[in-house]
Amino acid sequence: MSAVPTDNDLFAMYLAGDAEAFRTLFRHHARGLVNFAYRMLGDGALAEEVPQEAFPRLVRSPPDLTRGTKFSTYLYSVGRNLCIDEIRKRRVRRHTSLQEGREGAEGGGRPLEDRLAGDGPAPEDEAV
């Protein structure tokens, strides 16, 4: 009776050229990583992308698992970092569209671009 290989064994087998070992790791961890990412991000579509980005990072820069680090610990650390990066991107990207009107705001529902425009002539008119 043969022992079931651990995740670390499977990753070592993949690094030695066994593509099936990588598929096994992906099948074993992808759903859990999606659930983990969903709890951090609150967005199912973004959470689905995390394993698609995390596993290639492991391939490009394989961890040294000979020092007792578990594959799953390293994988979830990569996933966590991807989620944190996404959260940071969201913070930077939050802005109001210039064309978006705001009902009940001091602008009376007018688009922001109209509320920010100066009272003088338009730059194109001044140029002419």
The string of secondary-structure elements, in order, is: HHHHHH
Gap between N and C termini: 88 Å
Beta content? under 5%
Biggest beta-sheet profile: none
Low-pLDDT runs of 5+ residues are none
Radius of gyration, taken over Cα atoms and rounded to an integer in Å: 25 Å
Question: What is the percent of helical residues?
Answer: 55-70%
Shape: elongated
Number of helices: 6
Mean pLDDT: 83
Number of strands: 0
> Pairing-aware structural class of the strands and helices?
mainly alpha
Question: What does it look like?
Answer:
By secondary structure, the protein is mainly alpha-helical. The chain is 64% helix and 0% strand. It contains six helices and no strands. The protein is elongated, with a radius of gyration of 25 Å.
Short overview:
With 128 residues, the chain is an all-alpha fold.
Layout of secondary structure:
Layout: H1 7-15, H2 19-41, H3 44-60, H4 71-93, H5 112-116, H6 123-127
Helix pairs in contact: 1-2, 2-3, 2-4, 3-4
Keywords:
128 residues, 0% strand, elongated, 6 helices, mainly alpha, single chain
